[in-house]
Amino acid sequence: MNRDDVAWSGYWPAAPTPFTAGGAVDTDALASLMNLYADHEVDGVLVNGSTGEWFSQNDAERRTVAEVAIDAVRGRFPVVIGVSAYTARDSAALARHAESSGADGVLATPPPYVHPSKDELLAFYRSVSTATALPFMVYNWPRGVAVDMGTLPGLFTELAALDNVVAVKDSTGNWLSMLDTVEAVAGTVRVFGSFLHHRGLAALLDLGGDGNIDGGGVGAPFAVPFYRAVAARDAVAARSWADRYRALSGRLINPDYSGVYASPIPQLKAVMNLLGQPGGSVREPLLPVTDPTTLDHLARIVEDSGIAEASRTAGVGSAV
Fold first, then answer.
1. Which protein family is named in the record (predicted)?
2. Which of 56, 92, 168, 194 is the most exposed place for a label (fewest CB within 10 A)?
């Protein structure tokens, strides 16, 4: 397989997993979230990625989350299931379940905590990516696993050559390193990275790259039309949408993907709750945002950005 075997591009939310206040997986809220993404006309969704708090779920819960999301989407856009785990054996088992449940693809980070070498990474991805016939996305997530694959010479090129690998999600905090990834492999596989700004637009229009996979999807009413404008090569409209997106995300997320006011996932879910979206609660070890001053800051950002009104009218047009 290669990039031409999938039509993956544009704006994808990395879906949070809604939990109840008591810590249970809220399957009704998860289904509602998938319908919200459909209303926002997203181009795909990642389920059980980092934002999905896979690390706090047991395997049965992860399987349930995958099944509920796939059933709720009903083929309206691609669903890629995160299968990150500490061993290739465990990741492969989750990948086989995703395939049997009707997923469109699977994704995995390097094993967390392990700090694998280049050879160990190649062996891990060779094993997991061939566990099913599904298209596979490699996920570079240095903040979460303490290994930046972009610093290992030639690794992405070798990963892109593996049989089922069709995409890379490069979530390094080093933007120039991400561009190196685009240059190295965008002709072979899809590359999702940080493109929702003026510099990213320039890269998309000239160097390459395919889309953003963004924690939570709150910015979808600005990000979806950005990518529609990119597809039309309308740089003026794309810059306008990027500015609106940055006015929201730039006040919430730091360049290294940490949160400005709280841990990224509790902060995201607090914003979703302010917007009346089905984000639910977080699960330990994360803590919900309850500080009134912090919530006031987040409410002010939501108001200033205009995202609430944009969310209410999403899907009815994309004129600037």
1. Belongs to the DapA family.
2. 56
